[in-house]
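Ticket closed. Logging final result for General stress protein.
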Amino acid sequence: MAKNNDKKRMSVEEAGRKGGEKTAETHDKEFYQEIGQKGGEATSEEHGKEFYQDIGEKGGEIVSQERGKEFYEEIGQKGGERRASQRSRSTTQSGNSTRRSGSERFKTGEKAPETAEYEFDGFVHDPSASVRQREQTIKLEENDQFPPDPSRNVAAYWVKAS
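Final structure:
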């Protein structure tokens, strides 16, 4: 028997949307984080540092043209105020961060100055976000890079454990 060709064919966009919805029903947040990380790693292997510098520069030029000098003044002012507020407290309790006075703070991507255990000390771009207990301590060898937060894969601060 011949197939019925009278039915309307599904567009590529509709097929993609339906497939995405079906996948979202069967996969959790970690699945999407994992494939996102794999994609990011593959992209960074394909393109060198110059590629990212170039697209960052182009993006910055476009934002500058669209938003103007005042935009940068405003976000610089807000960032400076926020940073000053964070530094003014010798011990910070902001949901996920407890910064001990005198502790040197290290950021994702920096190298560990010595082999030691380091404690999670907050997110770089979201200091009010909560953190789970399992993310709080890591062991690094000297010159190992400080990693991003394990569950969110975003930049984090670390301090040497006491």
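The beta strands are 92-93, 98-99, 105-107, 116-123, 137-140, 156-160. No further action required.
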